[in-house]
Amino acid sequence: MINRIALLTSGGDAPGMNAAVRAVVRTASSCNIEVIGVRRGFAGLIEGDSRTLGPRDVANIIQRGGTILLSARSKDFLSREGRARAAENLHLWDVDGLVIIGGDGSFHGGQRLLDEFSIPVIGIPGTIDNDLFGSDFTIGYDTAVETALSAIDKLRDTAASHERIFVVEVMGRNAGFIALDVAVAGGAEEVLIPEAPVPIDSVIETVQESLRKGKTSSIIVVAEGVDGGALQVRQAIEQATGHEVRATILGHIQRGGTPTAADRILASRLGEAAVKALVEGRSGVMVGIVNGNVHHTALPLTWERRKEVNPHLYACAKTLSI
Ligand code: ATP
Question: Residues 207-229: what's their mean pLDDT?
Fold first, then answer.
């Protein structure tokens, strides 16, 4: 029987986290479960920084980026002593489970709480990187793609007007999901992702070929996980071609902003699914959506198994860039 749960957001913020917070609180309320909202992720859990959240406390947040619960990266939580203090608070609050909205680091932390202190834990995938196995998409990813794409569209105007080559670095940690999507949607001439390393000579050859074909401007999308990033790619192309090349690192603008409809719907479904999973007696799993249906994946599998980028989409990006 679940009477009270704790809820936190952890790691990098992602648009749609608030929609997930709202969904957890309102689903819990409909099941007569009380929700303790923990501020600043595991850091707040260690300090006992929390307050009860009811349905009215999560009004008017579905459309807001960031997280009203605040997020943090906690060094203290990496030690057993830190986690013991967190577990003590959870016992003090008399909660029957913990819902964690975050990425793989946060799920590592959750698994530790389960293994070491037998605290039932459910994960909700909240990260723009889309790098968690067990859900086709993570909360925040769709919004981040839209944000990066609109920036690339703007850079394309300048690249075309000034007949320049732009190297644009997008986020994604060690994964190329954002890069590949925006490369196809933004009509990029080349895309570099960690999953498919390309020698720099081959990138230079692509640019030279573009110039020979009469292209006066080019956009090259680089995922942040690629060795050397946009700056090294820029330097290599400039040296080899003698053309002026601009590098733009989009950075944190990709993490904020109003969540897209897709992210709000995903977050709403997963928030609901997380509470239901606890009620069903599940623990140590992440809720995700696979082929349109709710799936439960053991937390360790979410980071041990690598989610692959779509090879057909990668091939498509290459075909269409001629
Ligand atoms: P994002 O993908 O957006 O960066 P994340 O959840 O992967 O999100 P991290 O900074 O990696 O973000 O992890 C969040 C927090 O989880 C860390 O600050 C730390 O407190 C905790 N954590 C990470 N790894 C571990 C681990 N191996 N054991 C215990 N706790 C961990």
Answer: 92
